[in-house]
Amino acid sequence: SPDGGSRSDRAPKIYTKTGDAGFSSTFTGERRSKGDRIFEALGATDELSSAIGLAGEFSSEKGHTFVEQLHKVQCMLQDVGSNIATPLSSAREAHLKRTSFSEKPVLELEQWIDSYSEQLPPLRAFILPSGGRSSAALHFSRAVCRRAERCVVPLVQAGEADPNVAKYLNRLSDYLFVLARYAAMKEGKEEKIYIKP
User: Fold this and answer.
1) What rounded mean pLDDT belongs to the chain?
2) In this structure, which long-range contacts are made by residues 103-107, counting pairs with CB atoms below 8 Å and at least 24 apart in sequence?
3) Could you give all domains of the chain from N- to C-terminal order, each with its CATH number?
């Protein structure tokens, strides 16, 4: 080959073509339509992590110390995805051990929410997504988080995903809201409020 290495040295191709017919596999090995609500929830969770990644980059440029928390949240969202991709109806004991989701991360988010809330001025009006790039990106992440939660709730209600996953996403949207306000305050940026036209 032109680069001097043998074909077997090369990295595997990014495309597998296994999903071309519109089906994909869960962690339990089930083949389901890509339109299945499991993949809808996985996609929304992936989009959420991407939105948080963008918010993290903006926040990092401004020197915000909460960026490490956002990275930790992105790691937790990988675990959220693992739980969603392991439908309880077809999961074996080994799958459940590897992909269970505890309440611990939910409690951690609550601690973070409390610590930022204590530093914020009280809400007196409806806030529009605004307050500088970090804040606006965190608000955007919050909206994506709400959609991910709406995708996960039916899975939890059907007994296919852990209730703590829905609880985590519910708490995460509160965290992102509080963090957006905190970022605006730290940067001295004004939060735009709703004014009746």
Assistant:
1) 88
2) 103/164, 103/167, 105/76, 105/79, 105/164, 105/168, 106/164, 106/167, 106/168, 106/171
3) 33-89+102-187 (1.20.1200.10)
